[in-house]
Amino acid sequence: MAIRRSLQEWLNYQQALHPRQIELGLARVAAIARRLGVSTPPHTLVTVAGSNGKGSCVAMLESILIHAGYRVGSYTSPHILHYNERVRVQGQAVSDWRLCEAFEQVGVARGETPLTYFEYGTLAAMRIFQDANLDVAILEVGLGGRLDAVNLQDPDLAVITGIALEHTDWLGDDRESIGREKAGIMRAHSPVVCGDPTPPEALRRHARDLEAPWYAVGQAYRYVRKGPLWRWQGPSGCWESLPAPGLGGAIQYRNAATVLMALDRLKGRLPVGRDAIERGLRGVRLPGRFQRLEGRPETIVDIAHNPDATRVLAEDLRQQPCAGNSLGVFAVLSDKDVEGMVQAMAGVIGRWYLGALSSERALPLEGLLGALRRHVGEHRIQAFDGLTSAYLAARDAAGDQDRIVGFGSAYCVSEILALHEPGCSEGLSPQPPNGTIVSRSLP
User: Fold this and answer.
1) Residue 174 in contact with residue 165, Cβ under 8 Å?
2) What's the start-to-end Cα distance of the chain, in Å?
3) Is the pLDDT at 334 greater than 90, yes or no?
4) N or C: less crowded end of the chain, CB within 10 Å?
């Protein structure tokens, strides 16, 4: 096998390796994992599944455990700006060199067996963690749970966050079907922490069948906000006057409560004190979660990518109103419920700036425009041939009292954040954008 010397070359190779972007099933990856020597990790393992809140829970759990003095590895997806974000050790993205080395090891182990982009990356992350002398690894499921590549390793603790309708072509068209897929990360007699306040019965039933201890928000644990501070109550006691999580949005209190329940169940292996909890909550950072960008106009980006997530985003915007208009920069992938997302946000976005994404999975502009026109007046919509052009047009139109909200897809958030990276000055002047306006609102 030819050595591919740069990270981008490896990623291009992986994208072309399998005829399908998604191929659920564990038989192929499990066989390769055995050859790679990563089937049974030497460290404590936490697996996190769910539709919304997975990445936030991983980031908070990682931050607290690091502040408690443990050596922590975290695997998440998708990345926002750089692939390296997906694989972290001690909160730091691993180097290009280490990723390429792990990709080479996976390449040798797989032989002629095809792997998807996600499967290749998951096996590489497991190899990196195997060699990193970790105390604990935290793995975020990519899609579903039962047949996701992350699930080839047996977790000591399963965390399941909010369940929403998503990826219905793969997971089923109702919450019970999707819940059954998420439940696949559970293991017999190992604890399960659930952060969904109305979990599908399929989750509870599977936990009972496995005799897996079940800890659900609102039952086994509760939280109450008291201004910016909050209180957590669980089976082992309570934490009073906890600081607000460092991630924006009211939903983060529930995510933080779920993380504290997980830590409560891990205390026999990984005891954590109050100081680590406080510092970990305050210090957690994660791009694209109700993230405010520096400078004017005020800009918020959020990877709200389904109706449940956009309802949460809409409520956060209502709770933190601006004096002027909210200008929405919006784009989604073709497998998302764009109608439900638009309905959730129609009441809080004054003007919409639509942009075509470069991904082949993106919903074309015609689809975006069709969904918007059914719920939003034509005079409130502008569409552009590129997401960057849409964002720059919104910046050009925004007044001092207005704010910009970029949402709908990780690709959308990524493109906006890339424009704010040091050294990138494209269009961040008051000059009008260069992209073509496809459809412009009337005066």
Assistant:
1) yes
2) 60
3) no
4) C
* pLDDT tens by residue, 116-168: 999 999 999 999 999 999 999 999 998 778 889 999 999 999 999 988 756 54
pLDDT tens for residues 178-191? 888 899 999 999 99
Helices and strands of the chain, counted as H and E runs: 15, 18
**Nearest in space to 270 (alpha carbons), one of 87, 66, 57, 91:** 66
Q: Which CATH architecture has domain 291-439?
A: Alpha-Beta Complex (3.90)
> What does pTM read for this prediction?
0.90
Domain ranges across the chain: 7-283, 291-439
Residues 6 or more apart whose Cβ sits within 8 Å of residue 132: 71, 73, 89
Q: Is it true that 7-283 and 291-439 share their CATH fold?
A: no
3-class DSSP state of 332: coil
- Angle, CA of 123, 129 and 133, to the nearest 5°: 155
DSSP-derived 3-state class of residue 231: strand
Phi-psi bin for 340: left (phi > 0), alpha (psi -120 to 50), beta? alpha
Q: What is the structure's pLDDT at 428? A: 54
- Residues 243-269 as b/e (b if ≥16 CB within 10 A, e otherwise) read bbbbbbbebbbbbbbbbbbbbbbbeee
Q: What does the alpha-carbon distance between residue 105 and residue 8 come to, in Å, rounded to a whole number? A: 17
16-49 residue pLDDT tens: 886 665 566 788 999 999 999 999 999 999 999 9
CA diameter of the chain: 65
Q: Are strands 72-75 and 136-140 parallel, antiparallel or unpaired?
A: parallel
Does the structure show a pLDDT above 60 at 88? yes
Q: Of 1.10.10.10, 3.40.1190.10, 3.40.50.300, 3.10.20.30, which CATH number belongs to 7-283?
A: 3.40.1190.10
